[in-house]
Structure formats: structure tokens, C-alpha cells
Amino acid sequence: MRTASRDVDFHGHQIKAGDRVMCLFVSANRDEDVFPEPYKFDITRRPNPQLSFSFGPHICLGLHIAKIEMKALYEELISRVDSIELAGEPRLKIGNFVTGFKTLPVRFTAS
């Protein structure tokens, strides 16, 4: 949450000094003005100015370690697993700022 320090017109919406504002990153990553198919899962989407780790002075300090960890995970999976398939119904955990899976049952087939 942020507090507006001055009155501003934001795309036709009036925000007054003192108003509380919030960026919902999940919405920003699905912006129809930025992405041609915002709701399509596409790991090759370019350009991809997504906001999962924020930006500027509020950027996540763990950004680089998270990227290293995910790269290591994918490299190990690719080298050890032939296939990954759903093994049950995924359950979402929906929050105000972060949404993810509460459960995501999967079955791995070893190489």
C-alpha cells in the first residue's frame, strides 16, 4: 500500500492526496494494453516486463537468489525426469498480494 502525496489524474481516475493506493501485481502481469494474450500461459512471452519481484526502490532483495534456485530446479528436473503430469486437482491459495497453489499434486516419471 502507498499513500498519494498529491492529487493526480491517473487515466481518468482522480486520486487525491492522502488516498491509499495499491498495485495488484497479478493484474499488472495480465495487462491487456501490454500483452496481446494476457491470460495465456506462455513462458516464451516477449517482451515480458512482469512485476512479480516489483521494481525500483521496492524491488525484492531475493530476486537473484530466487532466479538461481529456479534455474537449478529446472536443470535438475530436465536431467532426471521424462514427464510430469497432474496427479489430482490443483487448489489455489488466493491472497490480496500473492496468489499461488495451495496444493498441486503431480506425478514424475524418472528418466
- In total, the number of strands is 8
Q: Report the β-strand fraction as a percent range.
A: 25-35%
Mean pLDDT: 89
Q: In which range does the helix fraction lie?
A: 10-25%
Q: Total number of helical segments?
A: 2
The low-confidence runs, each spanning 5 or more residues with pLDDT under 50, are none
- Widest β-sheet, arrangement of strands: 1-4
* Structural class based on helices, strands and sheet pairing: alpha+beta
Number of domains: 2
Order of helices and strands: EEEEHHEEEE
Distance between the termini: 47 Å
Question: For this entry, what is the oligomeric state of its chains?
Answer: single chain
**Compute the gyration radius: what is it?**
19 Å
Largest sheet: 2 strands, antiparallel
Tell me, what's the shape?
elongated
Task: Write a short abstract of this structure.
Belongs to the cytochrome P450 family. GO terms for molecular function: heme binding; iron ion binding; monooxygenase activity; oxidoreductase activity, acting on paired donors, with incorporation or reduction of molecular oxygen. Helices cover 20% and strands 27% of the residues.
Can you give a write-up of this model?
- The protein has 111 residues and is α+β, with helices and mostly antiparallel strands.
- The chain has two domains: 1-52, no CATH class; 60-111, no CATH class.
- 20% of the residues lie in helices and 27% in strands.
- The protein has two helices and eight strands, in the order E-E-E-E-H-H-E-E-E-E.
- The protein has a two-stranded antiparallel ribbon with strand order 1-4. It has a two-stranded antiparallel ribbon with strand order 2-3. A two-stranded antiparallel ribbon has the order 5-8.
- A hairpin with a 4-residue loop joins strand 6 and strand 7.
- The termini are far apart.
- The model has no long low-confidence stretch (mean pLDDT 89).
- GO terms for molecular function: heme binding; iron ion binding; monooxygenase activity; oxidoreductase activity, acting on paired donors, with incorporation or reduction of molecular oxygen.
- Belongs to the cytochrome P450 family.
- Pfam families: p450.
